[in-house]
Each structure stands twice: as C-alpha cells, then as structure tokens.
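Protocol step 4 of 6: record predicted structures for both targets in the notebook before any analysis. Target 1:
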Amino acid sequence: MSQTDAGLDKELEEAYIELDKAQKKLAELRRKLPHEPVDDYQLQGPEGPVNLSALFGEKQDLILVHNMGSGCSYCTLWADNFNGVAHHLQDRAAFVLVSPDSPADQQEFARGRGWRFPVYSAQGSAFTADMGFQSSEGGFMSGYQPGVSVFRRNDDGSITRVAKDHFGPGDSYCGAWHLFDLLPDGAAGWNPQFEYPDQQ
C-alpha cells in the first residue's frame, strides 16, 4: 500500500468515526424533543373510516410514512425499500403508509408493488397538512412532501408525536442511494422509475 493510499484510508476511518458520532448525537437530540399532542384523526382504509389510534394495533408505537402517492416514483422507491424490512419493523412497532390517494387506488397500487404493510388514505383529512407534510403556500415546498412521523399511544389513550423527518435522496431511510455512493460516478443523475425495461 502506498503512502497516499494509507493516508486516504486514515481519512476515511476518521470520517466514519465522525459520522457515527454525529448520527448518535442526532438520535440523542431527537429523543430530547418535547412530545407533541396529536388528535385522533380519521383516515380512510380499505374497509372505510379508521382512526389514527386504531393504526397502533397492539403496539405502543407507530411508525407512519407520509407518501406523496402513486404518481411519485421517488416515494414509490422509498416504500419499495421498506417492503423488504416491513416484518422486522412490525415486530417492534406498528408500521403503516399514508398517502393522499383514494383507498381504492392505494390498494390497487400496493398490490401491484407487492407491499407487505398497511396503507391508508388521508384524502379529505387535515392530517397530512397538520403534521407538516402538505403546504399550499407555493414555491418549492408546495404540495405534498414525503417523510415519516413516529407516534406513541400513552396509557390514557392519548397520542403524541415523538419524532418526524423528511425524506430525500441520500437520506438515511433508503439504502439505494448509499450503494450508489460507492460507484465511481455516484448516482450520476439517476432517477427512480416505476418499472425498468430490462427487468420486465
């Protein structure tokens, strides 16, 4: 190994250590944020109206993905990514996806993708906007935005949001981008598609 290679290896090792520290610090700071009381919103499921509280099932915690709907290939990539680990997530907490699509459209799309987690519609509800994932103010952030909210059902039945985050290329919630980072040219302008010709 050349001196240059050894120096680069050392830099990489130091960068990994700093990244690990930063990620742990971020998780620690998130846990210190005050919990936010949340109403028991009514959403729409395949069988009709369903309250947010019902999405917990027997779990105390609920991981809820805010998805922009079946028209967004990026949101579909994230949801496909969660599909492979859904059973692991559901062992620890309730895990669902919520989008603005109608329940019928959602169910058809989810079946086509082979998703293994429940999907619910926020159509006609203020839920997505109140959670900060829909805006009508105009500009870049106007409309629906993808992300995640984590809720806890308290002993008295009340619900609080304990964490939230937004999704975007390169984030910690979709592994594809991190694998692309290992390629010599990175993602190189790649954009997700609903289907790929060489895989049909």
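Target 2:
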Amino acid sequence: MAKIKLTKNELKTQRDSLKRFQRYLPTLQLKKQQLQMEMRRLDQEILEKRDEEQEARAKLSSWIQLYSEPIDLGPYAELETLKTSQGNIAGVNIPILESLVFKSVPVNLFETDAWTDEGISTLKQLTQLRVERQILEEQHRLLGDELRTTTQRVNLFEKVKIPEAKENIRVIRIFMGDQQTAAVARSKIAKGKSA
C-alpha cells in the first residue's frame, strides 16, 4: 500500500476514487459476462464445424477408393476470393466471414472419371468448413484475449483498488478524528490554564 497523506484533500481524493471504481466495476463485470457467453457460443460452433468436417470425411471414406489413381483436384477447389468483414462484440473487433468463392474451372467430362464431380464438391465443402472453423477460432482467440484482460481488471478493482481505497478512507478518518480529539483536549487544557 502506497503512503497516503492524512489530509482532507486526500480523503476527498480517496472517496472520489472509490466512487469511480464502484461505478466502473459493474460495467466491467457485464462485459466479462458477455465475453464469457460469446466464448461458450463460439466453442459450440467450433465443435459443430469439426463434427461437420468429420461427417464429410466419413462420407468421403466410403468411395475414396475410387481415387486409387492420383488425380489433382486442387485446381477445381481453389479459392478465388475470401471476403471477411469486421464485427464488434463487447468492444472487440472480430473477423466475420462474408463470402467464399471458388475459382470456376471447367471440368472436362471426357478426360475425368464420373466420380470426379462428387470429389470436387466434397473438397469444396471441406475447404469451406475449414475456413469457417479457422475464422471462428480467430474470433475465439481475440475474445479470449479480451476476456483475460477484462477479468484482470475486474479482479484488480474487486480485490485491490476498492479495498485499498476503503482502507485509506478508514485510516484518514481515524487520524483526523484523533487530531480533532487532541485539538479539543488542548483547548480545554489551555482554557483551564487561563482560568
């Protein structure tokens, strides 16, 4: 605890600080709750995206044996544009997926096998799910950082600043009360000597 002055001005400063801390604390607690709710929602969405990816891979495994010969499907499922925008949750800027556009590459039906179309669509679906999951994970990371900072501030106010201000006010009041009592005693002694 820092050394405080035992004066009326310091008492007023400490009272003002206490009021300010008590006024901001509910706002910080509300922000913390909102961030926690968003984190839980994002956790659920990330799990759902992972499950969707697993389902798509499971569907793929039933006919993946058809691709025993090496076929490069990469050009057919290559991203052309990935458009994101900025969203704001509890004062935190997060990326939001707007659109995902794949390059339009025509498939030569005479040179490719019949199941190539299904392979391309599954590959596009997996790519889209992975991009969506990565954006959700980035949102989760950004909100997690802000939640950590907000939690530290809430703890600082609750456990340090507010108790410290209350203790400082108590010490200053005791000192000022002792000073007032001593002044009254001195005046009585002086009055007794002059009489």
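Step 5 preliminary note on target 2. The longest helix spans residues 116-194. Residues 20-149 form one domain.
Proceed to step 6 after PI sign-off.
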